[in-house]
Structures are given as structure tokens and as C-alpha cells.
Amino acid sequence: MSSEPIRLQKVLALRGFGSRRVCDDIIAAGRVKVDGKVALLGQRVDPETCSVEVDGAPLGVRPDYVYFVLNKPAGVISTASDPQGRPTVVDLLPRDPRVFPVGRLDADTEGLLILTNDGGLTHHLTHPSFGVDKEYLALVDGNPSRSALRELREGVELDDGVTAPARVTAIEPNLLRIVIHEGRNRQVRRMCEAVGHPVSRLVRTRIGTLTDTTLAPGEWRPLTLEEIRELEFASAGIPGR
Ligand code: URA
What we know:
Elements: E1 6-7, H1 8-14, H2 20-28, E2 32-34, E3 37-38, E4 44-45, E5 52-54, E6 57-58, E7 67-72, E8 100-101, E9 110-116, H3 119-126, E10 134-140, H4 146-154, E11 157-158, E12 161-162, E13 167-172, E14 175-180, H5 187-194, E15 199-207, E16 220-222, H6 225-235
Parallel strand pairs: 9-15
Antiparallel strand pairs: 1-4, 2-3, 2-5, 5-6, 7-9, 7-16, 8-9, 10-14, 10-15, 11-12, 13-14
Helix pairs in contact: 1-2
The protein binds uracil.
């Protein structure tokens, strides 16, 4: 099977090699090969069948797949479209190709969100059976006691069942680092509320092995090939290299 050929320059730009102009320079310098042959400016590739290398390193994933990490600001919703017309995370990213958020963050939650058009990786990262770690910083009301922290760690009774064990550390008396691998709706907020300490600010700081402290709210960047690989490993339950 083959699909619509896409310009090589676009493939490289989407993968984060730079602007289309810079990507043309990389191609013109003979640094790119398609199916083992030095690529030409203006060349198009079939994303399903062609293999692309830059400086001898294979792109490694299908050239028409794109992967971004966004630092989601508060107030932006993480569905692909909103019937009420509120801003969505998709509005913050390039429109072509169309990407979808991997899982959801609440409108009020900030932090790392992956967006991609790779349905396989999305499935792996969001399916509860794969259990990829997600780390959050939660600013809570009051100072949770040791027993409240223990309850968060061991499992909290919620209306959709007891939560799985979580890793919870008090960085400051009212600032918790919480690592969960389930993805239930508003889970961290509901866990904290259930032990008497509602969340006033929630930021996701890690997904599997992926972290980024450089992106300002609303900023995004392409994932590197190494990051994509590590997420694939994490979602398959294999520790990164
Ligand atoms: N837990 C929450 O309560 N909200 C999120 O957005 C993510 C995890």
C-alpha cells in the first residue's frame, strides 16, 4: 500500500530539522538519502514505503508522522475541537498535518501534552494496560498529614473505584509531586480532594521519560527521535536504554 507522496523538505521541517529553507539546504548539501540514494531538492517521498536518512541516521519513524510536545497553558482545552468555541490545544500547533492530543489535561491543568498523528503511539500511551508514568506537581490547600500522604500513596477510594498505588512526595508542605500511571478523569484533583486537600494548581511535568523545563506556557517543539523511541519503549513496558 502507498499513500500521497509528500515533499522531503516538509518531512524534515516537521521533524524539527529547521525551517523549510534550512531543510532545503540540508538536502542540497547531499546529507539526505531516500531509499539509500542521495535525495534531490524538490523530491517527494511515499511515507509508507520510503526510508529517509539524514547524515546516515534513519528518521526511524514514518516520515509523515509528527510528534510535538506542548506546554499547555491553563484555560485551553485539550480536545481537538470544542462545540462552545473555546481555544483548544490544536489551535496552538501547525494545522497540517492534523494532530491530536494524546490523552487529556483538564482545562485548568498546565504542563506537558503530546500531540501526534501516530494513532499507534497514542493508543499505547493512553491505554491503562500499558501504565505509562505521568508526574504532576500539585499545589494543594492545607498541609497534608503523613496519613493523608500514605492514603494517596496506597490508594484512595473514588466514586469510580480505588486508585492504584501512586508515588507521592511532599516537596513543600503544600506542594506534592505525584506520579500515577492510570489516566482517570480529573484523577489527581479527585485524589487530593478525597483526602481533604483540594488542588489549587496542577502542572504535568513528565510523561514516561519525557520532560521539558524550557517551554514557556503555550510553546511547543517537535519531539526528537530519541524521545519518540523512549516513549515507544515506555509504552511497551521496556525501560529506556
Ligand atoms: N489529573 C487531574 O486531576 N487533571 C489532569 O488534567 C490530569 C490528571
